[in-house]
Amino acid sequence: MEKSAENFIIDDQDAGLFRVDRRAFTDPGCLEQERRRIFDKCWIYVGHESEVPHAGDYRSRNVVGRPMILVRGDDSAVRVLLNTCTHRGAMVCRQKSGNAKTFQCPYHAWTYNSRGQLVGIPGEDSYSESFKREDMGLVAPPKVESYRGFIFACFDRTAQSLYDYLAGAREYLDLVADQSELGMKIVAGQQAYSARANWKLLVENSYDGYHGLPTHQRYFSFLADIGIDFKARDMSAPPRQRAVDLGNGHAVVEYESAWGRPIAHWVAPFGENRKAHFAEVRRRFDDRFGPERARRICETSRNLGIFPNLVINDIMAITVRTFYPISPDYMEVNAWALAPIDECAEDSALRLDNFLTFLGPGGFATPDDIEMLESCQRGFANREVAWSDISRGMKREIPSITDESQMRAFWRRWNQMMTEPQIRRARKAA
Amino acid sequence: MSAIELPGRGEVEDLLYREAALLDEWRLEEWLELLTEDAIYQVPPTDTPEGDARNTLFIIADDAVRIRSRVKQLLGKSAWAENPRSRTRRMIANVRVIGADGDSIAVSANFAVHRMRYESVDTYIGRYEYKLVRAGGILKIKERRAILDNEALRPHGKISFIL
Question: What phi and psi values does residue B154 have, to the nearest 5 degrees?
Answer without folding.
Answer: -130, 125
